[in-house]
Design brief:
The complex is a heterodimer of chains A (877) and B (94). With 877 residues, chain A is mainly alpha-helical. Chain A folds into 6 domains: 166 residues, Rossmann fold (3-Layer(aba) Sandwich), CATH 3.40.50.300; 171 residues, no CATH class; 80 residues, no CATH class; 86 residues; 78 residues, no CATH class; 70 residues, Arc Repressor Mutant, subunit A. In chain A, helix 23 runs parallel beside helix 25. Chain A starts with 11 loop residues before the first helix and ends with a helix. In chain B, strands 2-3-1-4 form a 4-stranded antiparallel β-sheet, with helices on one face. Chain B starts with 5 loop residues before the first helix and ends in a 15-residue tail after the last strand. Chain B is an alpha+beta fold. Chain B has 3 helices and 4 strands, in the order H-E-H-E-E-H-E. The chains are: A mainly alpha (877), B alpha+beta (94). The interface between A and B is medium-sized, with 31 and 22 residues.
């Protein structure tokens, strides 16, 4: 921006003051409207040779939406840090997590090299107390090279005492911003106004150096036939400075310019087309460009200079003048603006103008049609603000507004309120015009489904999803798009419930939901479906589940949603997966990330999973008392759900078994006796019963119990339960002195665990001695056995992942296959025959393996391969 | 449908409107005065005094306008009705 700007004189002293100020961490420019805050920032930012990297943002007028504010801030930071890279703009989500957002901005700031100054103008427009609190956190935690400059009309409740005490807070206030007499003179000269020194002094006195007053005066003075007279009259008037000067300025404008300024003052931002529409004349863009060039009250918003906004004070006064001069025109102007905005996709603005036009039913209809879409686009707070703008009373029993209120309450977990609003919507559905009935009913059904899901009324959900089968025909494109959104949401809810009940349709419904969401351009819904799909995949081979988790997480991260609460199902499933395979360090990291993502969500359904996986991790590390606490917490949360969840018997089983293992078999017995028949008859609880019997010194009874489970008499969640059962059988046989049967049972357990490389059951059941007794040459699962032994000795497999040795050169697929046999006691000719290769070929592969792994012999190659997790991964990949 | 608004359920949260005078520097013209339809203007010397019955949220609305229009606020006063102390407004609350 190097256009000559007569309106901005180089206020050298002030620029220098600002330069001194920004040496501190935070600078606040606090001064009333029209003091020249924005002009100062612009002049400072645009001056030649500007040495700082700036992230500049202006808070939108009346910003209630914390998320919109933070996204704008994040965009500004990214723009400043990598102006050339074309990263996707950060996207909004319906579940906004302010804390996580501040963390994200802080971490992006921390990653920057070199000084960056964050400039936030019009901060007083930020109405959200949450956003202000979050901003305080950002400002007090700014990393080393980041500084901030805030401009506001009034002092804000930012709690920056710490910075003040540390001498890291600078302030520039109204008195500092006042034009001096010399600057007044410079402004007049720069604008080509010929005024005597006395006249200039008079003007300075009358305006008290107030920037807006001087700039308004200059507009009228430029080209005035008698500047001295103008100043004398102005000085003699008692009227307030701004009003007097605006009236003068308007009077001196040609009629078409004056008309344009008044009529377009209803808009927050204006372009040529919109101005043409409101004035009923052509050529508005030219006028706007000329106005920007001529004065400081019209500012273009984009480098192409297509959108403009008026200085707020200026716009407010114009708006008052419009209401006074053309009161009958105002509703029509708002309506025309709304029509244009709707056609151009500016939905929220269009609704605001419809409200301003006093067309409440029209506004309600618009909001009803778009609230879902706005919510999905992360503008729930905007919807809330729009809803508040309706006058109390009249549209209260409007079913469509009731539905929006229900949706908003549901999103915030206020389930009873949501249910009450839903009831209103339903009871007034009859009064809705027929053409809107179906849409309303689909929306009601979808919300009821969400409500039932959140309440854990799982059994009733499937029934409520019937509308999914109703055909989509004979509707407008918009209807179909809305239906598709609703359908995607419904499929997601349905699949989520089915997944928690371990029903077979879960994966199909979630995949359909994800596809529909992608087709509809709703990445948020797509990621949510994929996260749930990852959770639903937990019955799959571990490699599949792990891949789905990673895909869901990667897509979420691409949109900047890696720490959103709803990605938690994928995060926790991945954590569980890693704990099962003994990769405790890595599992713990994902568990911690899940907990961070769940900061704002306390739903028992998801917290339950966190406790289960924490319990597994603790048990895996031999901390049985800690594990007991986690399983107890999981059991407690499970009891809060309306219906029992898919992992209920697993939790109960582990809880009882852990009680017995920490030396409380009596309590475990008592809990066992209190279970209902269905739970007591599950394979998981059967395993627990065996553990209790073993703890009581009754291996024969334990054996009888596990024999029932293995015989198929008790339903099990999956084969992982049976791995445990075999191990318990082995332990019982061992106690009874039957070594051979013990070995067989252990070998069966290893065989079952091999494909997914399960390690946890061996550790949890305390099968160390059982495995140690297993003759090396008798097992076909040497690699897994080695992993299990490692974990039992207390080293996490994942921890080795982080080994500092240089990464190995990648092994070919055949080499990986050969490598898989190295931990066994098979000779090279035996390996060759297993793989149908010649011995020479195997020898070549083995030599290559040694070279690539920097190994001297077979045992060091195996050791190195285990460290690099090549052995476990090789078979499941 | 009735939305629960705690602020409206308790008299002490939002007392009945009271008479306020708001003194602003300079003479307000018709345009600026149209921003304060509920208040009666009067010129006092170089100032304008706006008078009217305002409850608390209306008062804050007026102050927001004063700020937005860049007006210079000189003074705000609450005028107590005869025989009523400032505290008596609270005596209704339990």
């Amino acid at each position: 921006m190097d256009r000559t700007k007569p309106r901005l004189i180089g206020r050298g002293d002030l620029l220098a003051a600002l330069d001194r100020a920004v040496a501190k961490k935070v600078t606040i420019i606090s001064a009333p409207a029209g003091s020249g805050k924005t002009s100062l920032l612009r002049a400072w930012a645009d001056r030649p040779g500007q040495p700082y990297r700036l992230a500049v943002m202006q808070v939108q007028r009346d910003q209630h939406d914390a998320q919109q504010f933070w996204l704008a801030l994040l965009s500004a930071v990214r723009q400043a840090s990598a102006p050339t890279s074309r990263t996707e703009p950060p996207a909004a989500t319906p579940d906004f997590n302010g804390r996580a957002m501040v963390d994200r901005v802080l971490s992006e700031l921390a990653d920057l090299r070199g000084l960056l100054i964050l400039v936030i103008d019009d901060l007083h427009e930020l109405i959200s107390p949450d956003a202000l609190a979050q901003l305080t956190r950002l400002l007090t935690n700014l990393p080393g090279d980041a500084h901030a400059v805030l401009a506001t009309r009034r002092d804000l409740p930012l709690h920056l005492q710490q910075l003040r005490l540390a001498g890291e807070l600078a302030e520039i206030r109204a008195a500092d911003l006042r034009f001096s007499e010399r600057e007044t003179r410079e402004l007049l000269d720069a604008s080509g106004v010929a005024l005597s020194d006395a006249g200039a002094d008079l003007l300075h006195q009358r305006t008290e150096g107030w920037a807006a007053g001087l700039r308004l005066a200059v507009i009228s003075l430029a080209g005035h036939p008698d500047p001295e007279l103008f100043v004398a009259e102005f000085s003699g008037s008692d009227r307030t400075v701004a009003e007097y000067l605006i009236a003068e300025m308007l009077e001196r404008q040609p009629d078409d310019v004056k008309d344009l300024l008044l009529r377009t003052s209803v808009l927050d931002r204006v372009n040529g087309e919109l101005a043409d529409l409101l004035t009923g004349r052509q050529g508005s863009e030219r006028i706007l460009l000329a106005l920007e060039d001529a004065n400081a009250f019209v500012v273009s918003l984009d480098p192409e200079r297509t959108w403009f906004r008026y200085h707020h004070l200026f716009a407010d006064l114009l708006r008052l003048e419009l209401r006074r001069a053309l009161p009958a025109e105002v509703p029509g102007l708002h309506r025309r603006a709304a029509d244009w905005l709707i056609q151009h996709g500016h939905i929220a603005d269009a609704i605001r103008h419809t409200q301003a036009a006093g067309d409440w039913p029209g506004a309600a209809r618009l909001l009803a049609d778009h609230s879902f879409s706005l919510t999905m686009d992360g503008q729930a707070q905007t919807v809330r603000a729009l809803l508040r703008a309706f006058p109390p009373g009249a549209p209260a029993d409007n079913p469509e507004l009731a539905l929006i209120r229900a949706g908003l309450n549901l999103a915030r977990g206020r389930l009873d309120e949501a249910a009450a609003h839903l009831a209103v919507a339903e009871s007034h559905a009859e009064t809705t015009p027929p053409d809107r009935q179906r849409r309303l009913r689909v929306a009601i059904a979808s919300l009821k489904l969400s409500l039932a899901t959140r309440r854990g009324h799982l059994a009733s959900v499937t029934e409520q999803a019937k509308f999914l089968d109703s055909p989509v025909t004979g509707q407008s494109d918009e209807d179909i798009a809305l239906d598709n959104d609703l359908r995607a949401v419904a499929l997601m809810n349905l699949g989520t419930v089915e997944a928690s009940l371990a029903l077979a349709d879960a994966e199909r419904h979630l995949r359909e939901g994800a596809v529909l969401a992608r087709e509809n351009g709703r990445p948020y819904l797509e990621v949510r479906c994929l996260a749930q799909l990852a959770f639903a995949s937990r019955v799959r081979p571990f490699a599949t589940t792990r891949r789905r988790c990673q895909e869901a997480i990667a897509l979420a991260e691409r949109h900047g949603w890696g720490l959103e609460p709803w990605i938690a199902p994928a995060l926790i499933t991945l954590a569980a997966n890693l704990v099962w395979t003994g990769e405790f360090g890595e599992g713990e990291r994902w568990l911690q990330r899940t907990e961070r993502a769940l900061q704002t969500d306390t739903g028992p359904d998801i917290r339950l999973l966190v406790h289960i996986v924490s319990g597994m991790l603790q048990a895996g590390r031999g901390r049985r008392h800690e594990a007991l606490r986690e399983f107890s917490a999981a059991e407690h949360l499970g009891s809060q759900l309306a219906d029992s969840h898919a992992l209920a018997s697993q939790v109960t089983g582990w809880l009882l078994a852990t009680q017995a293992r920490v030396g409380l078999p009596g309590e475990a017995r008592a809990s066992l006796a209190a279970l209902d028949d269905e739970r007591a008859g599950s394979g998981e609880v059967g395993n627990a019963r065996a553990v209790i019997c073993l703890a009581e010194g009754d291996p024969a009874a334990a054996l009888a119990t596990v024999t029932d489970v293995l015989g198929g008499a008790a339903p099990v969640i999956g084969y992982v339960t049976l791995v445990e059962t075999y191990l318990l059988a082995g332990l019982a046989h061992r106690e009874l002195g039957d070594q051979r049967a013990a070995h067989q049972a252990a070998e069966r357990a290893l065989g079952l665990a091999e494909p997914d490389r399960l390690v946890l059951p061996f550790v949890m059941t305390g099968s160390g001695e059982l495995l140690e007794a297993l003759p090396r040459h008798e097992t076909a699962h040497a690699a897994l056995l080695a992993d299990v032994r490692d974990v039992m000795r207390g080293s996490s497999l994942a921890a080795k992942d982080q080994s500092s040795s240089p990464p190995a050169e990648e092994l070919s697929p055949t080499e990986l296959r050969v490598l898989g046999y190295l931990p066994t006691n098979l000779s090279r000719p035996e390996i060759a025959s297993e793989l149908s290769l010649s011995v020479n070929t195997v020898n070549t592969h083995v030599r290559n393996i040694y070279a690539k792994l920097h190994a001297r012999d077979r045992s060091s190659a195996v050791q190195r391969a285990r460290e690099l997790r090549l052995l476990s991964a090789g078979l499941t990949r | 449908m009735r939305v629960h608004l705690p602020a409206l359920d308790h008299g002490f949260m939002d007392p009945a409107p009271v008479q306020y005078t708001i003194r602003i520097h300079g003479h307000l013209g018709a345009t600026v005065l149209s921003a304060f339809p509920a208040l009666v203007p009067q010129h006092h010397g170089a100032d304008t005094v706006l008078t009217g019955l305002l409850d608390r949220s209306a008062l804050y609305g007026v102050l927001a306008e004063v700020e937005a229009l860049g007006l210079e606020l000189v003074e705000i006063r609450q005028l107590m009705p005869e025989g009523r102390s400032p505290e008596s407004g609270d005596s209704r609350s339990p």
